[in-house]
Amino acid sequence: MRKGSKRKASQKEDSKSPEELPKDSTKASSRGKRVKAPAAPKQKEEPEFFPEKRNLEDLWQAAFPVGTEWDQLDLLNQYKWEFSNLENAFEEGGDLYEKKVYLFGATEPQMVFFKGEGKVVCIPTVVAVVSPFPPSDKIGINSVQREAEEIVPMKKMKMDWVPYIPLENRDSQVDRLKSQIFILSCTQRRAALSHLKLERVKKFEYCLPYFYQPLKEDEFEQCTEVNIIFPAEPKPVFCEFDWELDELEEFADNLIKEEELSEDQKDAFKDFVKEKVREAKKANREAREARKKALEEMSEETKAAFESMRFYKFYPVQTPDIPDISQVKSPFINRYYGKAHKVL
């Protein structure tokens, strides 16, 4: 009877609804085996947010800062410079929209204020030249220390105009052929500078983007001044002589009075100045003749291109992260390009 009673009791328990079963029994499988309760899901880590890069964000950095000292290049990363004004210029309605543009960089050491403290800062700038063809394939090399100016092919200084490809198009080789933006690039590796002669290294620091405008008379064609470095004893005589404004005899006498020149060197000094004046006049004359010849041989299409050429100079956008540059902006580009048509 007990056995039969147990069977009935077992059947009775099996007939119970899940609600009537003990709480622990819900953890059993249909075969009566215990099943491990599922573990609580692990909390997901918050994804790190990186702001999406703008399409032309690195354009200002891609344009080589010509003439900047090598050890100053790293200082350009000292502040968060932003050139969104340059980027916006390529948007619809901007000064550079759908135009063929050649860009080069430069730096301007200026005394500026940042967080109440005055300091000398290398401010990066970018010059954009709107032109149907490269403005020049040459580089000027000049400095106060150098006796003579050099105009050399860009490639001699490992520089050239190369296409700039916006970030969204960098996987496409075809866009290199359609590019409307070109940057002045330099392939000289900084790591290799230690193997170069000091004179060669310094040449890079004295470089200036060269430009010659044949439609207007160059300032040097009409210059009437010559720099004089007369090898006198005990020290050389440094001065500037203007052949239209200065009278040579009187000029030499004043130098003697100021004890810059001795009386017995007067005649030699005058002969030296006359020779320098002859050389300067000849150079001016040859420059005028070369410009006249270039104009005669120039097509009307090329003349129109030179007439429509425009220079735009971009400074960084003012933000709280950079020094106040509002008082140091200048339209002057360099001695070859002169002034920009517009400063942004």
TrEMBL record:
Entry annotated with the keyword RNA-binding: no
Biological processes, Gene Ontology terms: regulation of cellular response to heat
Residue ranges of coiled coil: 245-304
Start and end residues of each stretch annotated as Disordered: 1-51
Organism: Nelumbo nucifera (Sacred lotus)
Basic and acidic residues composition bias: residue spans: 10-26, 42-51
Origin organism lineage: Eukaryota, Viridiplantae, Streptophyta, Embryophyta, Tracheophyta
Protein name as annotated: Uncharacterized protein LOC104589299
Superkingdom in the source lineage: Eukaryota
This protein's UniProt keywords: Coiled coil
